[in-house]
Amino acid sequence: MKSIQIRKYAVAGILAGVLALAGGLAAGDAAAREWGPWAGHGGGDSRVLGMIKKIGLSADQKAQLAALLKAQRDNLAAKHESAAAARRTLMTLMTADAVDEQALGAALDTAASTHKEMALAWIKVRQDVQALLTPEQLAQVKEMRDRLVHRMEDRHAGMTARGTERLDRLIEDLAR
């Protein structure tokens, strides 16, 4: 029983990783290079938007930015909810007692598609925000974003190493 449960969670973890990879690939290499490893996931996008507050916006820029974000809020929220629903469906299918590969494949396709739509929506917002900024402000945002990308890449590298170590331990435990 314990062996089945361990395998079930190992498969779920591996498929979750596949989903994350599929979502990243769907977002496109250009988006990944521009935004870092969080394109379309909200975390990086909202962090970059948070950086905008630190660059000394004029009153006019603040008003324009507020109007832009207000106009896109419902669209972005809908994209995030679609992606979350796709992840929930995928998790339900991955943790089912009997895995339906066809349904799982369709759910992976849906999840990748919703993540792609979300990434593209955030990229559009980023482009619109950039159009409001001066060259000096854009340089400040780029510098802050580059530091954030570097920190997150270091963090992800550590997480990948720990994940590999855990997988190796699981393999060793199962081989005993």
Q: In terms of structural class, how would the helical and strand content be classed?
A: mainly alpha
Q: Count structural domains.
A: 1
Strand content: under 5%
Average pLDDT number: 77
Spell the H/E element sequence.
HHHHHH
Helix content: over 70%
What is the global morphology? flat
Count of alpha/pi helices: 6
Largest sheet: none
Radius of gyration: 20 Å
pLDDT below 50 for ≥5 consecutive residues: which ranges? 8-12, 18-44
Number of strands: 0
Spatial gap, N to C terminus: 16 Å
Can you walk me through this structure?
This protein is mostly helical. Helices cover 86% and strands 0% of the residues. It contains 6 helices and no strands. Residues 8-12 and 18-44 have low confidence and may be disordered.
Observed structural traits:
176 residues; mainly alpha; 6 helices; 86% helix; 0% strand; flat
Report a brief summary of the structure:
Helix content is 86%, strand content 0%. It has helices at 2-27, 29-35, 43-52, 59-94, 101-132, 135-175.
Topology, pairings included?
Blueprint: H1 2-27, H2 29-35, H3 43-52, H4 59-94, H5 101-132, H6 135-175
